[in-house]
Records
---
Amino acid sequence: MSQPQRPEKVVVDFRGGVIKPYTRKKEVRLSELREYFSNVEEAEKILLKGKDPLIYEYYEYIYSEAAGNLNLGLTIIYPGKIGKEYYMTKGHFHERDAAEFYFCLKGRGMLLMQNKDGEVSVVELEPGSLGYVPPGWGHRTINTGRGKLVFFFAYPSDAGHNYTIIKERGFAMIVVEEAKAPKVVPNPKYHKT
Ligand code: S6P
Ligand code: ZN
């Protein structure tokens, strides 16, 4: 018989934006994200200069991959833009019907969601706001502020991640700066199917 699971404590550093303990850390730089931005030429230009800025990083606490558990974590998206488009995460769908929540601790941003029919929904994030991602909705987060965007998340451990749909089709909408303010506009590169 397997060992009974034991309760544990995880501490979130509200200011620094790190959770302790964490079991996995991932850093995502521009070189890994270049095709996700609408202005790929601008991304290439930055990379050709020998720069590869850190766009976001996340820390995950994975207690167990077994169904019935929760994965917890914290994501930090740095401030910046590629062309007019704000720094953002890749975005993904969960493989299984699994919800997720994003609880904003610091900064300003948007949680962009899209279902399989291409319907879009946006939740604005500021400290204290919680964005609920229902099962079946792809999700991406965008930092529209001047400082770091930091949010805490939790989702079922057996959710699984599908990055291919977003990588190949993109989101129907993107978030760009227009007249010094964030604006959600149609993505010229979006492929519905
Ligand atoms: C996982 C959860 C977050 C994201 C992270 C980075 O279900 O939504 O941990 O992994 O915010 O985004 P992405 O799209 O690169 O996984
Ligand atoms: Zn997710």
---
Amino acid sequence: MTTNGEVIDVLLVEDNPQEADIVRLYLAKRHAHIYRLTHVRSIDQALTAIAGERSPGVILLDLHLPGARGLEGFERLAAEVRGVPIIILTNCDEERIAAQAVRGGAQDYLVKREVNAALLHRAIVYAIERQRAERDLIKVKERYALAVEGANDCIWDWDAVSGQAYFSPRWNELVGLENETTVGDLDDWFKRVHPKDIAELKGLMIPPVSGDRNHFEHEHRLRHENGDYIWVYARGVVLTDGGDSAVRMAGSISSITKRKQTERQLMHRALHDALTGLPNRVLFIDRLMQALRRYKRNPALQFAVLYFDLDGFKIVNDSLGHSAGDSLLVSIARRLKSVIRPGDTVARMGGDEFAVLVADIEDEQDIAQVSERIHHLFEREFSVAGRGMYSSASIGIAVITEQYNSPEELLRDADLAMYRAKRSDTEGTVIFDQTMHQAAVSRLNLETDLRRALAQGEFAVFYQPIVTLAERRIVAFEALLRWRHPTKGVLSPSSFLAVVEDSGMLSALSWWVLEEACRQAHSWRNLFPDGETLGVSVNVSANMFREVQSVQRVKDIVRQSGIRPKDLSLEITERDCMDHGDAIKVALRSLREHGIKLHMDDFGTGYSSLSYLQRCTYDSLKIDRSFVQTIHSETHSVSVVKTIVGLGRMLNMNVVAEGVESQDQLDTLLSLDCPEAQGYWFSEPVPPTQIGRLIREAWCLPQL
Ligand code: C2E
Ligand code: CA
Ligand code: CA
């Protein structure tokens, strides 16, 4: 028995001096060093003693005191000394009252006649410990009550005996009840659970077949007073009687509506495009997969994939900035949403690419309608970066057939068809067919061939003279790319240039032609004893001037070749010029300031405005050969040529007619005062080795 060595202050309230002496004796007997006894004779004295500085550690109270009948004395004292254990000393005839006192808060009672030193000591120590334990328990309870009150969770508890349930006040907040409402029944919970969730929840709470303790957790929806459902997470423990009935259940319910919302948002974000809010590629492929599965089960459930990107979207981005590009995409997405049928899916596949899954089609008419509607939505103007603009799309379509086994195959073919549509001048929509697959395969082979050609130096530059019509004098040569194919012979760019461009090799190839042509042009000086020079025209793509340092690179090439800047002309097509942004114009202008000349190629096929021509200042306009070749068959061709020649004169630009093949064409051009021309009539493009011969013939120079 331990008292931790503390001194215990004992307040003895006893009117009988002999009995007080006995108590003193007992306490002193073995534990004199522990006890410090204060003896008073009445309740009043006891109260005075308590009011002193130190409250006693224990009170021994005689029940039989003068002026205090029955429990009266105990009650007065107990009211004053909360927290101090009281032990009742009683005679055997008062045991009943003593027991009452214990129920009223006394720690214990001792029958005087039965007390001995050991018993008294033990009773005191126990009383003190019990009192402490009770105090601690109260603290724990208070702490628990505070925790429940402060917790975000509703704490609940159900008891089989009473059939009653307790739900902490947080419940009311969770479901939006008035604060006064009390919940006393498990059904108050269950009847709020979503019909789809209740069976599962109850299933978890039914006692387990084995074991007497069952933990469960469950997420479900609860009906809020406002009619909405909130998400909660309930966890609890079920205690059973060892059999299959629960005797007690308790647990907590917490709101997880926020977490669910976040989960939903994350899910949405993972499957949708942040900019337009449309489904993204992942979700589209998933839907496609579902459609494919349905089709495999029932081939009557046909569907199609429409794939398209925006024609010339890069230009919008490059010239107006990315936020303008973004805003165009958003507008297009909005219009797309409004034209697709419910049940169809429209997705942004990345960049400026979109796809539509057209479900439940009966014939091609259905698909045609959707593609019509998409083309139609591009007919209205878009408002981007404060200005109106137009956009258009080339659509490729793949329709489900038995051959398809994966969404990727369908997308690949729709993409191929789109590529076709893009290349076509007349068709905005192309439906995939098997021949396209063949074409794609041979294209792929061609691309592989081209890479090899570049690596093994199979490319060559041929030259075609440009001649003054009045004097028939060669003033320059146009450099034209050729591919000396190991098996197919010398190939013209028309058969491979598009693939070169798509595979990203065009720029490298064009730089190579430029270097080659400048080197050649320098070597022609040796053909003239008096140092006469010839110009060289090189075809360039506007893309080359996207590269930083491209202007410097051209200047370097010219300098290193040893020709003068004015001996070089760069030919750029009218279309290419218009399709590109200000950066290219700046580059071209700075080259021109350096002395290099600019030719606008294929003039008449694009839609250059006069003001554009003036702004960009070219040195020459090259009349597209389609006009020269139809100069006698189509009346408007003559007027186009006439107009261009007049335009050149007006703007002080040289004009070159391309593709002159006959004397008649030449005569007409002469009569229209066209200054220069080129074409098979003068010479086909020739390899560099034949240039000496051409020049000698033109100048009738003696053989060197
Ligand atoms: P282009 O710049 O309009 O070149 C003129 C084309 O007309 C050349 O075709 C030339 O061989 C052809 N031609 C010349 N005279 C006649 C004629 O009397 N009748 C006919 N029917 N055609 C004639 P080529 O060499 O096949 O080049 C086609 C196009 O490829 C060129 O059109 C040019 O845009 C492009 N190209 C050629 N070489 C290069 C190059 O090195 N770089 C780049 N970026 N493009 C090039
Ligand atoms: Ca040209
Ligand atoms: Ca041309």
---
Amino acid sequence: MMRDRSRAPGAGPDLVVRHAGELLTCAAAVAPDLGLIADGALAASGGRLTWLGPDAELSRAVALGPQTRVVDAGGRVVMPGVVDCHTHVVFGGERAAEFQMRVAGMSYQEIAAAGGGIQSTVRATRAASREELFARGRRRLAQLLRYGVTTVEVKSGYGLTVDDELRILEVYQDLAGAGPQTLVPTLLGAHTVPAEHRDRPEVYVDLVVEEMVPRAAEEGLARFCDVFLEEGAFTLPQARRVLEAGLAYGLRPKLHADQLSGGGGAELAAELGAASADHLDHVSDAGIAALAAAGVTAVLLPGAVFFLGLSAYAPARRLIEAGVRVALSTDLNPGTCYTENVFLMGTIASTHMKMTAAEVVRALTLNAAHAVGLADEVGSLEVGKRADLLVLDTTSHLTIPYHWGIDPVATVIKDGVVVAGEGIAEGGPDAAGPADSDHPDAAGRRPDSDDLAKRE
Ligand code: NIG
Ligand code: FE
């Protein structure tokens, strides 16, 4: 969502952020640390970053103009907007009753085999109107925005007919138009074999390969093609067929790989040059080596392991030590992880996968941007990149995984505009962030001043 904010030369930047106690740039050149600038500042124009440095150098480097909006972070942490790189945002219905069945001891696979699971969400999604899918998707995106998510990868996968899958992708197109987040759409037509094709899975795979993939690509509705490779979903040869069809139509592969059981998914993702291999709770040593050699980003989804009550978390340390770029994401979906709290993933990654606070921050930002092919645009704070950034309610990045279950985000800035949290309701031409109920200001805080430090 870019607006033309070109101004007369000398008019100064649109936005300046001052006094970031820790400005976490996550700039690529300084990996693996966070590119931390103490008492940092930045400037942005036309939605792009134009300057970053120590606050003490700001007045020499940047001439403020009459329209420059100044946000004072008051010594708090400023970081790139979060990239949630694996979500299933649009779906009909909810599965709270199934969750109770799991509480009573049934497994995810047992519920799926009994006709629940993905199939029950497919029934509810097919029955929902397009308006309903849009409205509920918009609410979930608004919730993600409160948690600082400025870029979201969004999958289809609950339609499982050509028309129903395309309809979900069209809803994503509408949601992208409604803003403010950047959405990255993925066709997941091969999420599971729909009930009507249960006895003829190959017929369904033919449909995905021959109709769904070509239409999603030709209509410009998807950037990636994904498959759920798992017992009870799709086999290795079927996954290869679908992903190769996607490649032929310019859709880059992604893969739900080695989630509930190991099955050579990481190896296939590496062989096909996938943008990411996701889950990886049961990845093999050979799979880890293959991901490292091929430069495939590992998207770890510890919220799904946690929410399913399982114990096999992905081997994050071994992946990192093998040189694999590791990202974290919610996997937001009604079955295996129903939460918009992306920071909670960082806490679970720390406690169960031994990822450090710095690794968590990079996994939620630059590494996640790699997983959606947008590392040149978002994920770090560098001159020329989008001015997507967060002011957190903390003065140290060490508290990001430590103070858990809360929303640590004070202010969300997308393309240089305050879109959620403190400062949202300010006047001025750029306070155009959504004032409607779908994008309430974060946690009901009442914005009444531009000077964030005053509300400390
Ligand atoms: O990523 N693994 C496959 N898909 C989802 C679960 C979908 C569902 O249960 O509705 C996941 O965990
Ligand atoms: Fe998923």
